[in-house]
Known about the structure:
Helix 2 (14-40) crosses helix 3 (46-71). The protein is built from four helices and no strands. 7% of the residues are buried. It starts with a helix and ends in a 6-residue tail after the last helix. It has a domain at 12-73. The longest helix is centred in the N-terminal third of the chain and has 27 residues, at 14-40. The protein is an all-alpha fold. The protein has helices spanning 3-10, 14-40, 46-71, 84-99.
Amino acid sequence: MPKGLWESLSGIPPAGLIALGLLACLQLVLQVLALVDLVRREREPQPAKWVWCIIVILGGLIGAIVYWAVGRRTAPTAHIPLRSEEAGARSNRAMDLLYGQKKQS
Length: 105
């Protein structure tokens, strides 16, 4: 450790050093979790991922907090229309499960 840094830290009371260490750990954890979440997100457009990555890395604790507060909005899910036969079969199965099978006449 450089001599100047050690001398400047020696003037801080022990409670302050502990708080500083906890803040540094919090920053590291939030940044790592934000980056892992960003990598795993599939629906985020690629350019937006790079922008958020730069914000999280260069922004430190504030960048990670901004990502968790603003950048992690859930993307709307795509509606995949079902074929009408498949939808009918699924609704019939659901009705059978709920009310029992229809009696054949």
